[in-house]
Inverse folding.
């Protein structure tokens, strides 16, 4: 280790240098276009903005894995918001909210993710989901409105 640590190089995490994200995403797109013999022309600007609102706990490797998965499953000419997993849509909504303390936003994000996953598990049937979660239907409807889950549903379903 000490032989390698002659000149330490600190590379900040991706979340601290989001200006690199479009370049890295394009690099990975070209790599996986070649690997999967695809001809995806690019990533939509709105999708780059959505990717920039995510906090990237897995750093550049997480970005690479995401682009690989999206390229493998994409049938169109462009990668759009519709190709991204749910957590990117939720992060985008949280970025737009921006109100309240960090803890309040983190709790809202967790609650939103938890309810959306429960709704997905119950094929978006609200009554069945309320039963599954063990809460009154009125409580679940209130949370769906407060957490703007209908917006997520519209994005996922393309409505």
């Amino acid at each position: 280790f000490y032989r390698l640590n002659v000149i330490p190089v600190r590379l900040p995490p991706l979340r601290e240098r989001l200006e690199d994200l479009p370049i890295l995403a394009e690099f990975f797109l070209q790599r996986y276009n070649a690997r999967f013999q695809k001809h995806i022309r690019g990533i939509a600007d709105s999708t780059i903005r959505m990717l920039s609102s995510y906090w990237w706990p897995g750093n550049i490797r997480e970005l690479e894995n995401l682009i690989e998965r999206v390229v493998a499953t994409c049938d169109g000419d462009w990668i759009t918001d519709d190709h991204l997993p749910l957590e990117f849509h939720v992060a985008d909504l949280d970025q737009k909210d921006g109100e309240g303390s960090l803890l309040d936003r983190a709790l809202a994000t967790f609650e939103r993710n938890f309810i959306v996953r429960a709704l997905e598990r119950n094929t978006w049937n609200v009554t069945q989901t309320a039963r599954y979660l063990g809460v009154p239907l009125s409580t679940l409807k209130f949370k769906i409105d407060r957490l703007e889950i209908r917006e997520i549903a519209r994005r996922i379903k393309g409505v």
The radius of gyration is 19 Å. The mean pLDDT is 85. Residues 107 and 113 are 10 Å apart (CA to CA).
